[in-house]
Amino acid sequence: MLTSRNRRLLAAAALAAVVVAVAAVASSSGGQPAATIAKSTLFRGIPEQHGVLGDPRAPVTVTEYVDLQCPVCAAAARETLPTLVRDYVRTGKAKLDVRTLSFIGPDSQRAARFAAGAAGQGRLWPFLEAFYASQGQENSGYVTDEHLRSVAAAAGVDAGAALEYADSAAAQEPLNRANADAQRLGIDSTPTFTVARGDAEPHVLPAHEARSVAAAIDAELGR
Amino acid sequence: MSARAASAAVAVIGLGIAGYLTAVHFAGGTPACAVAHGCATVQQSKYAELAGVPVALLGLLGYAGVLASLARDGESARTVTAFLSLAGFGFSGWLTYVEVARLDAICSWCVASAVCMTLLAVLSVARLVCDATPARA
To answer: Which of A120, A200, B60, B124 could bridge B82 with an S-S bond, Cβ 3.0-4.6 Å?
Structure first.
């Protein structure tokens, strides 16, 4: 015969097991890449050279440190970038640069190398936006050639040429540069924005909300 | 020290850890870690939220619930403590599996919380089943 306490323990354990099972299933669901990726007009008409978006003569440079698998980076692309593009890039006050880190895993590396190929075609920013829109489960191996081709199609990138570039030794250079710059500036999380006027040393911003980045740009413009 | 007092001490530590992780989550940052460290990977993964609720906040509520259940010493209160601790232990185990097997990253804060939940599970089960002290209704 079970004692009252043992019955209570069994009931608590059984209920806990059910709760954990439901939570685990809910936690695992979702996160797969979108079947189709919508084309965006956010960057339409804005010049891009060597991965830098905007007027090359813009006085302020905003650099974003990202990992393409990072969901917060995807959120920043949705919530922060449109304001910056509208108010500062299109008006010629600032230009946007990016450093693609790859600390989350192999899928980040593959995506970053492909991004380098997209940058060579002047389509880095549309590629980043389309990639974020199709983020899958981290390190699940979802960044396949097929996946990159679908992202490239939405971003207007020549997928064949970008894949060829991604497999070349040259594609590693932007990754090395991103890591070196992040280490030099003490950047240890993504997304992180830096703001610099001209060739001055960049300021690392503590937050990535649009108003914080905008305030930093305004401060540089007011100097 | 009684199992009840030990549980309260562990729950307070867990509450602090979960509170820090919740604050970091809502601040939009990542826990203090180096670039190559797993904290950022875990915090930014889809597993950091459950149905839109940060798991750090769930942990915070779980530890608060454990502390609240420890305020009384009846068998019902002990059962609630055991349920919360076992559920927390099981979910922590699941998240640790996710870190190792799916994310290939370990978050030291999450491991510390998993250790707290493990201790709470052991203490609460012992308190419910083995504690010779008569439970007050």
So the answer is: B124
